[in-house]
# Entry
Amino acid sequence: MKMSETSEISKTATLSIREDSTNNDLPLKASLYTVFLCVLFGANTVAIKISLSGLGIFTNAGIRFALASIALFLWAKMTGQPLYCSKKQAYRLLILSIIFTFQLSCFYYGLSKTSASHGILIANLLPFVVLILAHFFIPGDQMNIKKVAGITFGFIGVICLFFDHQEIAGDSMQGDLIVTCAVFFWGCSAVYTKRIIAEISVLHITLYPMMFGAPLFLGAGLLWDGEMVHLLDAAIINSLIYQSFVTASYGFIAWNRLLYRFGATAVHSFVFIMPVSGVFLSVLLLGEPLTLNIILSIVLIVAGMVVVNGHSIKVSRYDYSNREKQQSKR
# Structure
């Protein structure tokens, strides 16, 4: 559900599924469940920021994805989910895993230098980056005036953050730029996933990049984190549990299931909740300042998301059962 991480979520939020011509309303229960997941993902960057206070940058990522990999692997075994993949699928998953490792390295490193509020808002550039990349790399997914308007709102909103001079950390600008680089890698990952998702299961796309990245993150932590663990209290442990099991395991699978069943159009209509909930929790739990620039950024980013995705909650149902049957034959 690879800023966010908000973040992270946002990697799964852009997996558009082939839709047929029959439109249906997103049911109320599914709508409430989507809102719930958006709030969970919005809180993820706050959890990362808390755990970074006691763990090294790469150590944090390594522990998180190691735990999430173990949880997903055990879940797959207990539920009888197939783990085998062909050579062609393995090659594509390797490419995805490399991008995943780069994007999360940049995100964690950047977040260590900037505030959770900034990280959350910049991470929510992801849908706009995907729109731009999809125009060039996804056949039939072309730009239009509405998309251009939404992208413009979103990018102006993030630019406001670079003029937010009330940040406590002196290297906040550097952190913002690194998180922006992470969003670019995230967009590449999302577009590539969009191209291969018809041939590879949700479980494989979620699990194998984590399994690939976890030992690399831990190795990087051993080399560059200095002290891998310098504080371990209840708050840090709880934040790790949240990142590993709530968002990286449960959240990623749940979000992708929604995309498969109802399509990306309806699910994306709720994505604007992530930056709002994330900033609210950053202010509430971390005591970060709610500056005028941050408020303006929220307004512009949310406006951009609404322009691009909020025109309708109607979606085309996807024949999930048929897709599962097709995959089981491979």
The CA atoms of residues 222 and 228 lie 7 Å apart. Residues 234-262 form the longest helix (29 residues). Residues 1-24, 312-325 have pLDDT under 50 and may be disordered.
